[in-house]
Amino acid sequence: MKRWQLTLGLLATLLVTVGLAGCGNGKQAATKTYKYGSITIPAKNGTICGAPNYIAYEKGFFKKNGLKAKLVAKPTNITDLEAGFTSGKYDALNGDFQYLPAIQNGAQIQAAGGIHQGCISVLVPKNSPIKSVKDLKGKTIATPGEGSTPQYVASIALQHAGINPKTGVTWKTYDFDLLTKAAQKGQVDAIGTVDPYAYQAVKEDHFRTIVDNNNSNNSQKMADMGMKKSGSCCYLYLSNKLTKQNKSKADAIVKSYAEAAKWINEHPKETAHILLSKKYVAKSKFVNETTVTSLIKQYHFGLKKSSGKADVAYYAKELKQAGYLKKDTNVKQLVQQAYYK
Q1: Where does the UniProt annotation place the signal sequence (predicted)?
Q2: 245, 195, 230: which is closest to 311 by C-alpha?
Q3: Which end of the chain has fewer surrounding CB within 10 Å, N or C?
Q4: CA 190 to chain centre
């Protein structure tokens, strides 16, 4: 009897040991697959310019570079984004130059490269008497939020037209999908928004474009409005906790986005299919694979590090002049603070 009990005891010990070894091996395999662990990206907001987030995830670039990525909804309030990066909730972001004032005020993020050219327009209804930026003086402009890039793009154009963006116009805020309706109802005179909402407003509701910050054609007319020739509109941002404390993980993220942006530029049609079929971008009569493909081609995706830094410096100067950065801002120092490498 004792011998039988001893045998059972040895067998149980063996099974536990094997089981633990199996669990250990599984854990090691997972660690090996995701060398740098998990990252959380506030990506989902329905815009085409967020394509690098989705392609890096869907085409496996994050996984290839040792990152287990989770894509979550992007808060519309920049304060919520700041809090997310400060707390460690978020690790990376595909965002615009709107974050420069936030960085100056302590937001814990750094830009790591320009990722594509413009996707923002200032529009007016088809029957509007407004023909140019100068006609916006004293008018009401709606954007997706205070401190949003559409507001900054409109403000840069206003100051180049001799209009103080803080006192020369009235600003209102509406959700992306309500902006065109607000203008059509006469609640506002003009709107600043991003694609695909801007594109749809033009194609479906026949809005007219007053300002287009995609100056990939090097238009002098747009340059005179402050829209930098071939300038990056959107950038890859990383958490300071990564850029300062875990550079290997930060570099893995940069590599993932660089590969995704390159893939997008080489495969615009397949990118459009993924964005729409996976419902990252809402499909409509005018927002379909053909039109999204066309827009993606116009954005010229590709991670630009040195030229991206020059673009950040350009927009920092413009935002200082528009009154969105402190009057005594040292642009060179701010760019050093705001840029990774």
Answers
A1: 1-21
A2: 230
A3: N
A4: 23
Q: Locate all alpha helices (DSSP H) within the chain, ordered by sequence.
A: 2-33, 51-58, 61-64, 78-87, 99-104, 149-160, 179-184, 197-205, 220-223, 240-245, 247-266, 268-277, 289-299, 306-321, 331-338
78 in the Ramachandran plot: left (φ > 0), alpha (ψ -120 to 50) or beta?
A: alpha
- Cβ(280)–Cβ(50) under 8 Å? yes
Query: Tokens in use for 87?
Result: 């707390």
Phi, psi of 12 (to 5 degrees): -60, -45
Pull the structure tokens for residue 70.
Answer: 């989770």
Contact indicator for 153, 194 with CB cutoff of 8 Å? no
The predicted-structure confidence for 222-259, as pLDDT tens digits, reads as follows: 999 999 988 898 999 999 999 999 999 999 999 999 99
Q: Which residues of 277-302 are buried (b: 16+ CB within 10 A; e: fewer)?
A: eeebbeeeeebebebbbebbbbbbbb
pLDDT value of position 26 = 34
Q: Distance (Å, rounded) from C-alpha 123 to C-alpha 181?
A: 12
pLDDT of residue 46: 85
> Would you put residue 106 in left (φ > 0), alpha (ψ -120 to 50) or beta?
left
| Residues 251 and 113: beta-carbon distance below 8 Å | no
Tokens of 47: 């815009």
What letter represents residue 4's amino acid?
W
SS3 302: coil
Kindly list the structural domains of the chain, giving each domain's residue range(s) and its CATH number in brackets, ordered by start.
Answer: 35-117+231-338 (3.40.190.10), 120-223 (3.40.190.10)
CA distance 312 to 315: 5
**Structural contact between residues 231 and 156, judged by C-beta atoms closer than 8 angstroms:** no
**CA distances from residue 51 to 91, 133, 271, 294 in whole angstroms, order as listed:** 17, 30, 8, 14
Instruction: Tell me the C-alpha distance between 336 and 327, whole Å.
Output: 18
234 vs 210: CA distance, rounded Å: 20
